[in-house]
Each structure stands twice: as structure tokens, then as C-alpha cells.
Design a protein that fits this description.
single chain; 288 residues; alpha/beta; TIM Barrel; 8-stranded parallel barrel; 12 helices; 17% strand; globular; binds 1,3-dihydroxyacetonephosphate
Length: 288
Amino acid sequence: MGLVSAREMLLKARKEGYAVGQFNINNLEWTKAILTAAEEAKSPVILGVSEGAARYMTGFDTVVGMVNGMLKNLNITVPVAIHLDHGSFEGAKAAIEAGFSSVMFDGSHYPIDENVEKTTEIVEYAHSRGISVEAEVGAIGGEEDGVVGSGEVADPQECKRIADLGVDILAAGIGNIHGKYPDNWPGLRFDVLKEVQDVTGGMPLVLHGGTGIPGDMIQEAIGLGVSKINVNTECQLVFAAATRQYVEEGKDLVGKGFDPRKLLAPGAKAIVQTVKEKMELFGSVNKA
Ligand code: 13P
């Protein structure tokens, strides 16, 4: 199956009460591991690509070419979307031009009127090409320069304004943050999530910062309309830990253990395992 927009897979998830995972990719190993996990779990999947990760992989064209090649060579049958994560206005257009099947335009740092104006233009641009759009209200916090900011909480009325522009998916800050959560994190604002769900009338909602959110909170969020959950840091952590163990056990010094295909294999295996566990938690297994 070729790439699909995220719209249909998320409307199905919303209707049936589960969430599809967005797992961010960084390179070939990441992409292969996530697609392998999705195929084995018979789960739809969204490959998230930040503009920084796209630059690291040399650009949007390389990402699209690599993913399309893998869909064919790995005989992937489950629905797969390539989705720009936290895209800028220009970045969203460029990703669409290169063949992304879904984009997030993150205008949450603009005043609301400017967010509305720019989101409107991206929706027109994307929808005329069959591409789905995620918009954001209330910036998702996270760790920057060692300072952990608590996530913003979105204003439900602003969420309604953005949802009414015809976006397919809406990310609303509800106290969630990217990266690891601090010990004193007060948890997700389910009261706000419920209000956002009420005013957006059944639109699939997105939970960013999926790493480290306890399973019971994840399930409660899905019950309140979250249909897409983004996970990035957790795959990085398990990859790094497995690679560290391989090196600390001196395996790179035995025979051809230094061969990158061997050196990176434990990390890739750890990503497959983590992605499958998340798919189980999100309820998307066997939903392809
Ligand atoms: P984490 O890195 O906290 O899992 O967040 C991922 C994310 O929300 C990407 O948009």
C-alpha cells in the first residue's frame, strides 16, 4: 500500500475508540524499525518528521524516497502516513511539494488571529492536494537549554476557532510536554480536554509528548477524543540504552562487531519492541 493521508485512519480511530501512534523518524534504522513493528502488529502508523530531522536526513525528498522505497521493499500492507511534525508555514508547503501525505502547521506561537490566517492558507494548500492538516493551539512545553517549561493549556474557544477552519486533526496543549516529565508534573488537564472535545465536535485530537505519560492517563485521554499520540524521546532512550549495553559488553570488539549493521541492531530491535508496546497501549493493534 502506498502512503495515505492521516485523515481517514484517524477518523476510524476516533470512531472506534483507539489512537494511532506517531513515531518520529531520524534515519533508516528508525524508519525500518517502526514500519516493521506496524506491519507485525497489523497497526496503522504515522511517521513523524520534524524539520530538523528532515534536514539531518538531507531534506524532504530523501525522506519521501526512503519511505516509499521501504513500503515496497518491506511489502508493507498497513496504512502509513508521513507527517511533518511542528512544521513552519514554509516548511509545511515544502513538505507537501516533496510528497508528504500529512502536515502539521504549528502556529501556536503566533497570536491567535495570525495562527487562524496562516492555518487557513495551509488548509487550502493541503486539501487541494489531498493532504491532511494538523493544527495546534496552546504551545506544548518541554525542555530547552536545561529549563523544563510546564506545557501551556489551550483556550477551548481558540481551539474551536482553529477547528472550524476545516483542519483534520487538532493538537491542544493540556499540560503535556515534550521529553521527560519532571517528578513534580501535575498531570494532564482532563477538564480542558473534555471542553476541547465538546467544542470541536468529534474532531480527532492529538496528544503530543507521549513519552512518559502513564498508561491510565493515556487511556483516559483516548476516551476523551485523543486519536493520535506522538512518541519520540522514548524511542531515542531505548535505542541509546541498547547501544550503550552492546558497547559496554565489549561486543563491538568481538569479530566484526564494529560493523554498523551489527552495532545498530540492538537499538533498532529495542525500537521495534517499544513501538509494539505503544501500539498495544493505544489499542491500534489489528486495526489496519
Ligand atoms: P516526546 O518526545 O515527549 O515523546 O514527544 C514527541 C512529540 O510530541 C513530537 O511532536
